[in-house]
Amino acid sequence: MMDQLEQLKQMTSVVADTGDIDAISRFKPVDATTNPSLMLKAAQDPKYAHLLQQAKQQAQVLGGSNAEQLQNMTDQLAVLVGSEISQMIPGRISTEVDARLSFDTQATLAKARQLIEMYAKLGVGRERVLIKIASTWEGIKAAEILEKEGIQCNLTLLFGFSQAKACADAGAFLISPFVGRILDWYKARHPDQNFSAELDPGVLSVSRIYRYYKANGFDTVVMGASFRNIGEIRSLAGCDRLTISPALMQELAESDETLVRRLDPKTVSSDDGKEATDEAAFRWQMNEDAMATEKLAEGIRNFAADQVKLETLLSQL
User: Fold this and answer.
1) 47 is an active site residue
2) pLDDT at residue 229, rounded to an integer
3) What secondary structure, in 3-state letters, does the chain show?
4) List 56, 132, 141, 165, catalytic entry
5) pTM over 0.85
């Protein structure tokens, strides 16, 4: 009998939420995704030392100020790690734009194009890469332009339904709604409430987005992310994709209980009507959603902080 990880792979594309090449080799996901926090962890692992040195050498060749060289080093490291991961998976590697550019559409566009060029120099075509961008209004607008250029995007740090609607309207290839961080917010405010399984607000959020997309004919892929436990994963079985940490993949692999499909495009219906979201509506709806506003801001701050830590680490090489 198949374990639950293998059962999940029959109905959902499993994506590795890690920069750990060994873990990717072990669990054989379709895709893989990284972020500044994962890149910082990878940079502190001795087995990546050769990639750090390679990134430093390439940045020095490009030249520029110390700050520019540091930025180039972090980008080079992300692309070098992504390139190695791409050789181990059949699908795509997601690589993140600097979180400090989250409110600058033009800077996001420039960085995304630069990352695609860097991958191309290593022989990794744009069809193997997803550019990860925070789901701010400016980020979503950048993704809309990039998609038209054939550069497909993964809109991350997505917590609210208004973000999901705007991403679909923009034609984003994929969104990463965060399950566990939504749960964190509600648990902090309602510590005695039962948020298990289908009562988990993160699970409810992703399920709502999935139903809205499928019922209204949007092609944008829904990839649940940021899981706190395997109960959340089981409750979203059947979602287009789920990006899962190696520890939770291991837990699924150790269970051989039958996994029930929870989401199916053939049977969905949605209470949410299809309506375009302009900037004013987006910003108002985000303002009305305290959880989404707070978690988006916190996520950008945390990724930016880890980006700075990574640059500090690389500056000491």
Assistant:
1) no
2) 96
3) CCCHHHHHHHHCEEEEECCCHHHHHHHCCCEEECCHHHHHHHHCCHHHHHHHHHHHHHHHHHCCCHHHHHHHHHHHHHHHHHHHHHCCCCCCEEEECCHHHCCCHHHHHHHHHHHHHHHHHCCCCHHHEEEEEECCHHHHHHHHHHHHCCCCEEEEEECCHHHHHHHHHCCCCEEEEECHHHHHHHHHHCCCCCCCHHHCHHHHHHHHHHHHHHHCCCCCEEEEECCCCHHHHHHCCCCCEEEECHHHHHHHHCCCCCCCCCCCCCCCCCCCCCCCCCHHHHHHHHHHCHHHHHHHHHHHHHHHHHHHHHHHHHHCC
4) 132
5) yes
